Structure formats: structure tokens, C-alpha cells
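cron nightly-structures :: item 1 of 1
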Amino acid sequence: MAMASLFISSSPSFTLPPKTYTKYQTAYFLKPFSLKAASTSVDQQPTISLADKQPSPFKANSWQWKFQDKVLTIYYEEHGKESPEPTKNILMLPSISDVSTVEEWRSVAGNIVQRASKINWRAVIVDWPGLGYSDRPKLDYNVDVMEKFLTDFISAPDGPMKHFGNDLVIFGGGHAPTITLCAAKKGLVKPAAIAAVAPTWAGPLPIVFGRDSTMEMRYGLLRDTLRTPGVGWMMYNMLVRNEKAIASQYKSHVYANPDNVTPDVVDSRIALTKRKGARYAPASFLTGLLDPVKSQEEFLELFADLDGKVPVLVVSSKSSPKRSKAVMQALKGAKGVSKFVEVPGALLPQEEYPTMIAEELYQFLQESFEFNI
């Protein structure tokens, strides 16, 4: 039971079963979108409003990513509206976890792109390889694989974002912005701005138990066990793929308000754990193979490296677990962080409180781009 609680997640909300993909293939977003004012108390976590969680129409799509000797079908969504204003693009990256999915960003995307402004904002949300609705083959998932994917998705000649170049804004949750910063430091991607929502750099086990040689050996053993046929599925089913485990992790550290962990949220996350190959990438995340850096010092250096080059927003959440919150709070006033804000929520504020997150992100976009027009 102790280990079950360590399958720490950072993701999700509306379910899009594979059979329903096709009905969205031609849906763009010509539907009006209404914004709702919200106020919160520091001492009381707000509940989710149904108005917050209504998704706007979007276009579902896929891209064939060629990696090593495999071709992976990568799932992504396009959110936007027709407008005479100049278009600027946002890439939204889900947090990496055992139940990572594009769903965590849908309401935020719909909120931002439907606003009337000097810039016509368009958003693309993509599922990482091995997670969400993307293919999940048996690969040796590590941070290099994820960094390679991000780079290819943005810049590959046949990639969905190839035309946007240096004009691309990137929003990410959890590990995603840290991977983005690593790629930016190497010059592999050149975003116009970055927003890091509840950013992290250590997987569930390393952040709790550290990385000495003994623990690394144990992580490797656990990872290998989870990847084996038969026994691996049994362990995964026991620790992750059940209602009790999913509900427990969401109530304890993914959402801030347990009342927001509805049966629909739990059911949609369980559906993700039943996809073919569901355990491979999460096994790497759990044991630290998807960690972009190995220390808080390296983490801070990633932000410092972009000082004066790229606008960077950090969104910290008030109810994150102690160790995760310490990671976020260390960025307050840190070199390279253009703006730091704190919002209600835990590890997934963009899904639990999408209207609040959308407002913070839109203000950042205005300050970075629109006010200069």
C-alpha cells in the first residue's frame, strides 16, 4: 500500500475514448465561449464549476513520429477560432505521470483561444509518446526520448508545428516545462515564451527516497519488474489500475479539493491505464528515468540560462505536496523567472481550476506580446 501512494500523477479531466476521435475531426471552434469571474479564499479551496469544465470544440489529429525502428501515432488537438487578427501559436504539454493526458489542458485552451484580443491565439495540445492517447510501444523511455520527441514535434519537416519556428509559445505542467528548458538550453527549441505550471523535475520515488546507488538499484529492479509480461501487469493493476489507487492519489496530491475528484475524473483516468502498453512510460517516470535534471541547483540553472532571452512565467500551487512545493517556491525571485504567481490547486491546477489558470496565462501573454502591439 505504501508504494501505491507513490505513483504520483500530474494530469487530467474530460475523457476522449479512441472511438470518439473521429467525430471531432472536422470540429473547429466557431462556438461562442463565455468567461466567468471567480474569486477564491486562501483558506478555502474552491470547487470546480461546471462552466469551467465545458470544453470548446476542437480538431483532433495525429502525427506519425519515426523513432529508432518504430513509427508511433502521436495524438494531438488543435484549439482555435477564425479571426482576422494575426495568429500566434501556443503548444500545451501535459504533465508526465501514469495518467498523463491532453485532457488537463482542454478547458484552459478553450478559454484562451476564444478571447477577443489583438492576437488570434491558437493552441495545440499533444500527448507524449507512451502516454495519454498516443501510442505506447515497449520502448526504453527516458528523458532523452521525450526531449527528442518534443524537438521533432516542433521542428521536423513533416511535424505539425514546423511553420511556427521561433514564434511558438510553450505552456507545460510538471516535468514538461523542465524538459522544454533543457531543450532550449541546448538550442534544440527556441520558444518565444514559456509558462511552467506547477513545475517539477523529480519523479515520485526519487523525490521521496533520493538517488543514492542503493536506491537507484532498487528503482531499476522495480522498473524491470513493471515492464515484464504477466508479473508487470499484475503489479501495475494492483498499484495503479484500480479505482481506489487513482482516487487516492488525486485526493491526496493531484487535486487540492477532494470534492473535485468526481467519479467521471476517476473513470477517465482508469480508462487510460487500460490502454495497450500503458505501464511502460509510467514505470520510467516513477523511477526517475524521465527526470530532466538531478538536483535543484541544475533546475534553477535552466531558468537562469534564459535570463533576459525569453519571458518565463512560473505558476506555483498553494496545496502541492511539501517537497514539490519547495521546488516551485525556490523559483520565486529566481534568475530567469520573469513572473511568479501562486494559485489554488495541487499538482494539476490547470485541470482543477482552469479559469484561474487561463486568466494568469492570458495576462502573461498580454504582457509579453499584446501590450507591445
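cron nightly-structures :: done
The mean pLDDT is 86.
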